[in-house]
Amino acid sequence: MKRPNILWICTDQQRFDTLGCYGNSWVKTPNLDRLAASGTRFDAAYCQNPLCTPSRASFLSGRYPRTARARQNGQCLPADEVLVTRILGEAGYSCGLSGKLHLSACDPRVCPVRERRINDGYSEFFWSHHPDGHWPKGDYNEWLRDQGLKYGRQQFGDSKYVETSMAAEFHQTAWCAQKAIDFIEEEAQSSFPWLFSVNIYDPHHPFDPPEEYLKPYLEKLDQIPLPNYVEGELEDKPIFQRIDHTGAYGGQKELYPFNKMSDDDHRLIRAAYWAMCDLVDAQVGRLLDALERSGQRENTIVIFMSDHGEMLGDHGIYLKGPHFYEPATRVPLLISWPGHIKAQISPALVELIDLAPTILEASNIPIHPGMQGHSLWPLLTGQVPANQHRDSVYCEHYGTTHHAPDKPSAYATMIRTESHKLVAFHGQQGGELYDLKRDPKETRNLWCVNEYQGTKMELFQKLCDRMAWTVDPLPIRVGPY
User: Fold this and answer.
1) Helix axes 172-187 and 263-293, enclosed angle (nearest 10)
2) Spatial distance between the Cα atoms of 211 and 230, rounded to a whole number of angstroms
3) 144: part of which helix (H) or strand (E)?
4) Main-chain phi, psi angles of 394, to 5 degrees
5) Going by C-beta distance under 8 Å and a sequence separation of 6 or more, which residues neighbour residue 375?
6) How far is CA 183 from CA 96, 139, 169, 193, 291, in A?
7) d(Cα 318, Cα 420) in Å, to the nearest integer?
8) Fold identical between 5-384 and 395-468?
9) What's phi and psi for 301, nearest 5 deg?
């Protein structure tokens, strides 16, 4: 039997609660909701770092960020790391990508032309780290020039925080999808299996949807709920949260300073973010239609996910950083393969590093010995119950975000069980502890509450164990001494 094709859709900075199937009644995501109904929807999937490069290096290698040696944005994944896409390519898969990869420094001052690549396995590579003019040699920008267009954004009304960008048909999200559609149709008659990574930049900030996607939200703007923030809740939480409350990425005053923003600002940003998610859904619909039209849906695994979440003003913070709240670390994860993967909702605790070994097992390819993830294939196929996988998820942030010279950089780790979450800030006083059953919105920090000290010590033990288990399995031991 031919190995399955794999359509791997990864958005950027999309939190878990942005789809209708996850309970959001505001967004319009019929295509993703349909995909969820045809396979397994994971309700507790977590990234291993709430930043782009560490997360992507982790789930593509099946290894924790510190183990894969790409724990920060601006670092370059070492060339000897083995990605799941490389393994597939060497096993006979035709592999392609459109959009963002971000396994290397993506700063034009460091890499002025394109992102540096290692042996990533992609034979088709349509690269667009982000759509604006920083990367004139990016494939999306070159495509725009071929259309006689130039990428641009416009301030929306008098808002300081929301813009509008290209019309949907010329948007980077649509371009990523079209490149995948072209690939899917070209591969329809091939005797070889394929993998295509659709790495859409949205809904990453800046919050700049096409105007036609934003307009429907404007009629009900005053009904949009405000961020989950309780005045004063940051006083007994780590200093990094109070810093980012005044501006994202270490208190940068121009970057969404929550403490200076109005309710209208918050609602408009939320509307723009949801509009970007709606555009993603429309393009997913085009991708699914292409699979059906070309007769490949029945032999294609479709994965939809994001690399990490977005605070979106919750807890008084925008964007991302050393923050391990659910909106920052919990992501949507849908996996579908008709006739092979069960239609179910799984509450199991899942880590994104579990995807690489899952893909290999589904493709009947041996799992690489350096991988640390646990394959989800038994759960997906009903060999184990839908709630059985891990007893905790682990996330880390080792100096990932940049802070001003007079402000410390965070080294922090998180352990999350079914009922509790502990965040340790190493070298700092204090931390975070939440009872997720009593306080699912994570507003009350129990770190210093006497009745929770036993729970805190139990979680510290689990955290220490999880940190120890991030040790590199390589090189393989070949003898007793």
Assistant:
1) 10
2) 32
3) helix 139-146
4) -125, 140
5) 354, 357, 358, 360, 361, 367
6) 8, 15, 18, 12, 11
7) 24
8) no
9) -80, 125
Q: Is 30 helix (H, G, I), strand (E, B) or coil?
A: helix
Question: In Å, how far from its chain's centre is CA 329?
Answer: 8
Peptide bond connecting 227 to the previous residue in cis, omega within 30 degrees of 0:
no
Q: Which two tokens stand for residue 415?
A: 């352990």
Q: Which CATH architecture has domain 395-468?
A: 2-Layer Sandwich (3.30)
Q: Where are the domains of the chain?
A: 5-384, 395-468
Question: Token pair for residue 76?
Answer: 């370059």
Which of 54, 47, 51, 82 lies closest to 70, judged by CA? 54
Q: Measured between alpha carbons, how far is 42 from 39 in angstroms, rounded to an integer?
A: 10
> Is the pLDDT at 464 greater than 90, yes or no?
yes
- Nearest C-alpha neighbor of 172 from the set 206, 121, 215: 206
DSSP state of 458: H
DSSP, collapsed to helix, strand or coil, labels residue 450 as helix
Phi, psi for 195 (deg, rounded to 5): -130, 135
Contacts 24+ apart (CB under 8 A), 291-297: 291/7, 291/184, 293/185, 294/184, 294/185, 294/188, 295/188, 296/5, 296/184, 296/187, 296/188, 297/338
Cβ-Cβ contacts under 8 Å for 189 (sequence gap 6 or more): none
Residue-level pLDDT at 105? 86
Tokens 């059985």 locate to 388
Per-residue pLDDT at 403 exceeds 70: no
Stretch 345-365: mean pLDDT: 98
State the pTM of this model: 0.96
Sign for the pseudo-dihedral over CA of 96, 99, 101, 107? positive
SS (H, E, C) 45-56: EECCCCCHHHHH
- For the stretch 2-23, pLDDT in tens is 899 999 999 999 999 999 999 9
Neighbours of 424 (CB within 10 A): 23
Q: Distance between CA 258 and CA 251 in Å, rounded?
A: 10
Domain 5-384 matching CATH 3.40.1130.10: the answer reads: no
Mean pLDDT of the chain: 95
Report how far residue 2's alpha carbon sits from residue 299's, in angstroms, rounded to the nearest whole number.
8
Structure tokens at 459: 């979680």
Q: Is the peptide bond before 238 cis (omega within 30 degrees of 0)?
A: no
Indicate the pairing of strand 40-46 with strand 350-351: parallel
Are the C-beta atoms of residues 163 and 154 closer than 8 Å to each other? Answer: yes
